Write the structure tokens for this entry.
Amino acid sequence: MIEIKSSKKKTWIWVLVGLGGFALLLNGAFRILDFYRGAAPLPPRGNVDPALLVLDDSAPAPLAVIDFSQTCLQMGEPFTVSGQGSADPQGLPLHFAIDFGDGTVLDGVEAEHAYTATGAYRVTLTATNSDGAADVSAGILSVGSPSFDPGTLNEIAFQPNFYDPRIIEEIETPAGGMVWGFFNAQADATVTNILVNGLDWEDPSSGVVWCEVVPGEFKAGEIGILRCMSNEKTWTDGAPISLQVETDAGTAWAHQGTLQAEPLAISYVAGRPDGSELLVYARNDGEDPVDVTGLLLNGQDVSEFALVDESPLRAGRTTTIRIPTCGGITWGERLVVTVLFTQGETTQPHRVTRELRLFPSQFMVGNWNNEDVFTDPTWRQTQRDAGINLFIWYPSASTPPELVLPMAEAEDFYVFTHVGNPSPEYIDAAKNWGDHPRWYMNAISGEPDIGNEKPTDVLQYTQTQMDLFGPTKRMWIYAACSYQFGKWGSMADIGGMDHYTVWAPKCNVNWPYLPEIFGVEIFEWWDHIEFAGYYTLAAKRAAEPRPIIIWTQGLFNGFQIGDKTMRCNTPAEIRSQWYQNLGWGAKVMLYYHFLQEHDPICPEEPEQEMGLLVRETDQFSDLIGIGEMTGNTAFAWSYDDQVDVVTTISPDGLVLVVSNLDYDLNLIAPYRWHEKTNVEIFVDPPEGFEPYAAWSPEGEEAIELQMVRTVGGFYKITIPSLPVARAVIIEPEP
């Protein structure tokens, strides 16, 4: 018989065996009917009474289309704006007004203007028909460019560790958080020590897990950034804190104050790959609306160049701050971003500051491959057919950089290394080939939280690698246990995680869990598919405002009983995890894993699905790269509790990842989904974003979706079929 005992920490299934020997009673037909999700309820499905979402049957409004070719101007330089592409669906005559954003409004379908002050401007065309119906179309431009030069900095910032109570792990729940100090160096100096609350940060009594100042050697006037992480419960909102940076020239900076967790979070910072625009996303985690009032870059007030898409910002919403950068972006250099705001009805100024090394976004799909991918062209092409264009690589005598990197350039793929403490051979490759564009990044550490690596050791590796490569190479650290994500998320340039739901969800003991039987490891864990999303969200929050890279399950999942391989992943299992990870914040996806020995033992369909998913994602990957995952139902939702909707916002379009959560979680047999039809998704778009069309990728093709406007400015999209998961793209009006 099977006896099931549940508790908050574990669910144990004890399999009792009879006199005849070992008899495994769990089988592929066993369906889990329910499971323990944790203490937190599921997020609410939308913020609007569905009875109010009736169709807007008013006459169709005109379509305003603004056009101007010049986006970077000098003061006094004339430019022309046109609305000639506008039209009215009823054929009614149109009146045009053009607002240049500096107080100048001119009538007419075309107008010329010249600016008398530097800054960024939002130019808006309003087309109004003879019945009074109107539509607007806007674009942005810049007169001059913001400065990235060092300004004045003297402040601290605090980010509490993120905790999702839906995840149950066998370690202490997260506490503490990250503390930053920002200052200007007063003299040329080398950092010798950091004191936290009067103690050497390496003193166990300080409660600090790791701490550093970047750069470790600085010039007078240069920005210094103190970065310290603690898991101590005493590091909480309102707690006193003192910080002191010592150098060979004396005390470089000292601060006494309190830790303050601001309601506004800088959730993501991205630059357009061509360097033409910086995008800063800010999320309101508080209960009251906030007004974004300004922006600083490296301590310089650049508010005149910052255009805020949505302010006041309601609770749970994310706004985009757009900064045209006509002078370009210097990639790889550390950037300090400060958002100024007020909260609620008060005018008391608040500020939130974060830092990162900024690199251009580039969607890629990787694999944990063997060396044979570089020596066997046929096998390499099989990998490429599965959509993989990023391979793990260790410089060696058999795969030296002079072989691999020219091959990558010729065949249009990339490589990444996975090295912490560098060997002499690796150092030689980095010095001679480190600036090669096909060497995408280095993974400094993987799963250090369940390994034997100390944070101080990994921090030293990170510093060594950054010194070795300079600003040319991204550095990545990924962990496994969400309760530990805060310890690693901000250490490198990219955060991430390694968590699967089919067979190997690592740390989560939510449900189900089976022990060893007679010393044989029968089963470890399974997870509901949505836990891939929960873990991705936790990894993202730990890394903000940095991007994250996620390992997702590919063809093979290591599903074994004893040493016997049981089965491969199914297309549906691969698809469901792909879209959960992508939807909840991943910027690059890596398959774990697909090796030559898997090819003959697994069916073709899962391998084909891997390539299909990449071709689908390629259709909207640019939006994923520059956009921000909002992580709640503030922008889009379904009233069906078995439909998960996650929105990524960007000025160029919205990406809704829609997942079907109506499935059977089987223990040995594959998970089985129950197809949903005519799924209704409701959208409350960002302010100023007017949806124009909705479509969904299907392989290399796309299907148009029905989208209608409802009363109140909401939109309803109908998805005819949702077998497992899919993306929905919403394009803005031109």
